[in-house]
Each structure stands twice: as structure tokens, then as C-alpha cells.
Amino acid sequence: MSLLDVRDLSVVFQRRGERPFTAVDKVSFTVEPGQTVGLVGESGCGKSVTSLAIMGLLPKRGNKVTGEVLFDGADLLKLRRDDMRDRRGRDIGMIFQDPLSSLNPVIPIGVQVAEVLERHQGRDRRQALREARELLDAVGIPDPDRRLKEYPHQISGGMRQRALIAIALACKPRLLIADEPTTALDVTIQAQILTLLKQLVDDTGTALIMITHDLGVVAGLCDTVNVLYGGKVVERARRHELFAHARHPYTHGLLNSVPRLDSTRGERLHAIRGSVADNIPWVEGCAFAPRCDNVVDACLEGAPTLEPTATGGDLRCNNPVSEEVAVP
Amino acid sequence: MTEPTTQAGTPAPRRKDERPGRAGGASLNRLGDRKKARLEELAQASAGKGGVSLFRDALRRLRRNPAAIVGATIIALFVLVAIFAPLIAPHDPVQRFDELTSQLAADHIPGATDGFPLGSDELGRDLLSRLIYGSRQTLFVGVLATLIGLAIGVLLGAIAGAFGGWVDNILMRVTDVMLALPALLLAITLVALASKSSQWTVILAVAIVSVPVFARLLRGSMLAQRESDHVLAARALGVKEHNIVLRHMLPNAMTAVIVQATLTLSVAIIEAASLSFLGLGDPNRDRAEWGAMLGDAGVRYFEVRPELAYYPALAIIIVALGFTLLGEAMREAIDPKNRR
């Protein structure tokens, strides 16, 4: 059984007097124990909303969440509020994008790490602080004794993200959701944080959902990748398959738009034309059709379905990029 | 994490400081030597001290602000005078002195004489001693009124901000009503409602007037906190709702309120003085109180001896200014935009 089985998860934003907006549209994917799964897509494709829906952290008012989120067979969406709260932080950890604003500015780092241990493991403050020290050490924060007493604004961005990772992993959750954990960091720190995440995830056997728009992150970390577009999964493949033979024109475009060391000098970077604003609703056709180079008539006659591919992935496209075309 | 692993690949920012000195050690010129010594000094200094707390950080900024120093000095002097009034005051503030009363006339109140540096008041008491004792009254009423107002305001604001919805709606409409009335008018109304005016009716009236400001302020920042990333992060860790409110929202929302309390102190002092000035304060005329001194003698005998009005007025202004200066400086120091 999969650790996490998301089935037909939909999130619809409903504001009074406005047309409902489907942010996440029947997304399904699974995460096996110890596996790292990527959710990739550009801004507004529904990555973060998916993760918040899994955690049950979307505000109750104005949102309609449907579908199933089976964690160990139990549907998280049907859990009582208190039960879900007990699971957050203990079974599922989460790391957010901005490490400064995700830490409480008026509480020392140590107490923030200790808090989650007190909450879920029933430790007393002293014991929890001792463990917090070890955790900070484990995520590579130098001089943990001193950092325990410091406040978030006193430590560097990379160290803050390390502290957040320590907090998220404090209770040894079986699943960690990382929502763009490196976006707010500079490139050298990004690499360190990713290495650290990979190492910790490997050491502890924690499954990881990596939410990112950065294909470089995916390449280094993920076993399976789900590419989201307009709230739907448009392509799913194992990492190597995806990078070697991206079938969906959108994925293909994404990969082409990454600068490469071996490209000829002066060659222009490929860009996907248009923007998310050009999307058409999925009910009318493929949302990507207005920006797609491979568009055919069928693309504007209802949404294509997600079909399994020969290589064991899934694809939602009427006219995919042929398998023979090697990604540059 | 199975066991603490010290990573080879991770940098140790603290240690980075030392590297330039060590790496270039062989070919260092004198400048490099000095640099190296300086770096070692720095490393030692930073190794010794633990984490700098938020409070100390703000204090450091306060110390560099001249307005804060002036304000704090005024307040410190004021508090010292209030505490040690019996030691400082040359005379008993209620005693009427024969050498002064004998000189009182319809058109004459004696000025400075031997042993009475500021002269007499309208009943032949020592004006200086009464001014000094008046500071106690002002401090007592101002601080107590502010504390009571703060406590009630924080309670209401926290409830409104934490629960939201209809609770918030009801509480905020009540504060709207209170805010719609001019503060002093509301205070006068409240004092007038009490059958017998006393020191406590003044304190309560001034406290209640300050409640809506505190409640509004706290509720606003609580709502802002509710949307903040670190509260979402706390939720993602399964922290219980009451802990989220008490540990994560309230302390972050309190800074604005605490600063407001310092500013409210000066307003409370002025309002309390105003009520006494209008004759709505403590009916005990023996008790020295700046507002009453200003209202009773200051106005009635202004043509005879204007100093009776000048001195208490000056005292009120200076003390209120002290609290305002410190409050403004605190607001600046704690403002997160100035942090880092």
C-alpha cells in the first residue's frame, strides 16, 4: 500500500459573487514509503494549494476540497479536526518557502524546535531542548548551543531553513512536504539545503513531496515527477524518463527553457510563449492549447485524458512530442 | 534523524571569520597582521556572548536615540521624586504654616521666602512640597489607569482577534461606539455616573476610555498574525489552537500594544488631571494633585499669583512629554522595519 494516495483531489475557490475557480482539478498521485515525488509547475498551477489541501491547512471558508487523501489507508480529508492536528507535525511534516517568515520572530530557535517535541512526543521542556540541540546539530547548524538561544532574525537564511528542516523532522514524520524550500535562498545555499534534505530523507526513510518550479531540484532529488499545469497533472514519469523523453509539449518546453552549459554561444534560450493568463478552462479543451506548439484540432474539443504511456508514466496530451525527439 | 551527523560539506559561518587570517598567514604584511588580530578579537568577543535577545536589541537602539534618553530621564526623575517625596519635600504638604497664612490677603499670596522656595499656596501651605507630593498622585493614577485599561483592552482584543466571526463583530461595534465619543467627554460621563466621585472613579474612567484603543490595536495585529506564515507553519506542526493564540499570535501582536501603553500613560495623566481640574476628581482637597491645584487655586488666584497655575501645569506638561518621547522612541525601536 502506498504511504500517500491522493485520489481525484480538487480544490475550488468560491468567493461570493464571483465565479468559482478550480485551483486543483482532480489531481491523483501516490507516494511510496521512502520515495521522493516532485510536483512541478509554474506559478499558479496549483502546487502549493495541493500541499495545503493534503495538510488540511486551507481555510474552511471559501474553499471546497473534494476527493480523497489516503495516508496509510485513512482519508485525511475525513478526519476530525483534532485527529488531523495530531497527525500534522507527527506523521506529516512541512517546510515552507520563506524561512524567515515561517519562524516565530519572538521565540528563540531552540524553543521552537522543542515545542513540536513537547506537543507530539510528550517531552518536558528540558528534555525537548536537549533533543533540539541534537536536531540542530544533525541539520548542520554550527554551534547549536548558542543557536538554541538565538532568535530567527539573528541567524542567516540558510541556517533558518536548516532550523525549519530540524523542526519539520523533529518527530520523524513518515512524509515530508517541502513547498519550494530553496526558492528564497541563494544558489550556493540552495545546493547545501538540497543535499541536506536528500541525506536526511535517505537516512530516515522519510518520503518526500518536493514542490518546486525548478527542474534542477527535480533532477537532483526526485524519483517520480508530476508535472502540473492549470491544476491538472499533465505528465507523470520517472525522473530519468522525464529528462530523457519528455512527452508533453509543456514539459518539453520547460526543459528547453533551462540554460545549458553545452549550448552554442549566442544561442537564444527557448521560452514557452504566452503566460498562464492565456489558459482556457479544462472543460473547453486543453488548458495549455493556446501556448502549445503541437496544438491540433482535438485539443480544443474537451480536455484530453490522462493515459498511461509505454514507459510506465502517464500523459495528458493529444499530440505529444514524439519519443524519438531527444531533449537537447 | 538517526544520529547527529556533522557534515563535511556544510559551512561554518562563524569560523569563516578566522579563515582569511589563517590562510594567508605566511605572506602577511603588517596590515594583514592587524587584520588577523582584529578578527581573533572579534571571534573571541562573539564566542563569549550568547544569543542577543530581541529585548536587548531594542534596548541598544533605544540607547542611541536622544529622544528616548530625554524621555527616560524625565520619567526616571519623576518616579524617583514620587517614591522619595517624603524625603525630598521640605515640609508637610497639608500643614498650613502660620508665617504664610499671616501674610495671606485677598490680593496677596506670599512668594518665595526663607524655607519656602516656591512660596505659599492659597491656604498657606508650601507649594513646593505639594508639587512634590502631587507627583505620587499623578504616577499612581496614571499607571493604574493605564494598567487596568491595558488588561481589559488586551483581553477584549485577544478574544476578538482569536475567534473572529460574530464575537469579533460584537466587540468591535462596542469599541466603535466608545471611540466615537471624545475621550474626555466619555470620561466625564463615566465619572458623573458614579454617585460619589473619588480617586477610584477617576482611575476607572480613564482606564475605560483607553480600553477601545488597546482592544482595536491588538485585534488588528492578531488578525494580521493569523494570516502570517509562521502561524501557518505552527498549524502545519499540529500546534494546538490555544497555543497558537497564546504563544504564536499574542506575543507577536503585543509589541504595538505595549508601545501604545507608554503613549497612553501620558494621555492618562493628562486626562486624570483634566478631570481633577474640572472638579470631578478626588473631593479630598488636602491631597495634593496637580490637576486640582491647577483648577482650584490656579484659576481662581491667577491674577493674584499666576505661579500657582504655572508650576502644576509645567509639571503635567513635562511628565506627559517624557512618556510621549519614550513611547515614540520605543515604537521606533521595536518596529520590525528597523530590525536586523
Can you walk me through this structure?
The complex is a heterodimer of chains A (328) and B (340). By secondary structure, chain A is α/β, with parallel strands linked by helices. Chain A folds into two domains: 4-228, 3-Layer(aba) Sandwich (Rossmann fold); 233-315, no CATH class. Chain A is 30% helix and 21% strand. Chain A is built from ten helices and twelve strands. Chain A has helices at residues 47-55, 81-87, 109-121, 125-138, 144-148, 157-169, 187-204, 215-221, 239-244, 249-256; strands spanning 4-13, 21-31, 36-40, 63-71, 74-75, 92-95, 175-179, 207-212, 224-229, 232-238, 307-308, 314-315. In chain A, the strands form two sheets. In chain A, strands 6-7-8-3-9-10-12-11 form an eight-stranded mixed sheet, sandwiched between helices. A four-stranded antiparallel sheet of chain A has the order 2-1-4-5, with helices on one face. In chain A, helix 3 packs across helix 4 (125-138), helix 3 (109-121) packs parallel to helix 6 (157-169) and helix 6 runs parallel beside helix 7. Chain A is globular, with a radius of gyration of 21 Å. In chain B, helix 8 packs antiparallel against helix 13 (241-277), helix 11 (199-226) packs antiparallel against helix 13 (241-277) and helix 13 packs antiparallel against helix 15 (307-334). Residues 1-28 and 46-52 of chain B have low confidence and may be disordered. The two termini of chain B are 32 Å apart. The relative contact order of chain B is 0.12. Chain B has helices at residues 13-16, 19-23, 30-48, 54-63, 66-83, 85-88, 98-101, 127-163, 165-180, 183-193, 199-226, 229-236, 241-277, 290-300, 307-334. Chain B is mainly alpha-helical and 340 residues long. Chain B has a single domain (77-338), classed as MetI-like fold, CATH 1.10.3720.10. Classes of the chains: A alpha/beta (328), B mainly alpha (340). The interface between A and B is large, with 54 and 39 residues.
